[in-house]
Amino acid sequence: MNDTYIPHLPIWTNFSNVYLNSHNKTMAAWPYVFRNISDEYDWYYKGEDDGYLIVENLKAFLRNYDPNKPHYFGAWVKPYLDKGYNSGGGYVFSRATLKLLVEAMEKNEHFCPNADYEDIGIGM
C-alpha cells in the first residue's frame, strides 16, 4: 500500500472529529474546493466512510452529462424534506453546481442551514 498515493488536503483543522460536525466540515470544504481546484475536475463526489463507490460505474453514468451544466446526483430520499435530498451513498455535483452552490453560500450564509445531518442541509 505504500506505493499508492491518494491525493488529499487537510482543509479544516478547527472542527472536532465527531459525526455532527459533518455539515460544518462540508460547508467549509466546498468554497475551498471551488477556489482552489475547481478548474482541475469536472465532477465532485461527497461520500461517507461507511459507503462504497465503484468509480468505473460513476464515470460511465456521468459520461452522458455536461459538467458545465448544473447536475446533482445521488440516492434520492424524501423522509425529512418535501423536495427530497440525496442521502446514504453520497452525492455528486457537476462543476457548474459547485459554482452555483458556493456563490449562493457567499451571498447568504444561511443558504445551506446547519442541519444535524449534512446531506439534509445540502438538500435544503
TrEMBL record:
Molecular functions per Gene Ontology: glycoprotein-N-acetylgalactosamine 3-beta-galactosyltransferase activity
InterPro entries: C1GALT1/C1GALT1_chp1
Topology term for the membrane: Single-pass type II membrane protein
Protein's cellular compartments: Membrane
Main location: membrane
Keywords, sorted A to Z: Membrane, Signal-anchor, Transmembrane, Transmembrane helix
Any one cellular-component term (Gene Ontology): membrane
Similarity comment: family membership: Belongs to the glycosyltransferase 31 family. Beta3-Gal-T subfamily.
Name of this chain's protein: Glycoprotein-N-acetylgalactosamine 3-beta-galactosyltransferase 1
Provenance organism: Acrobeloides nanus
Phylogenetic placement of the source organism: Eukaryota, Metazoa, Ecdysozoa, Nematoda, Chromadorea
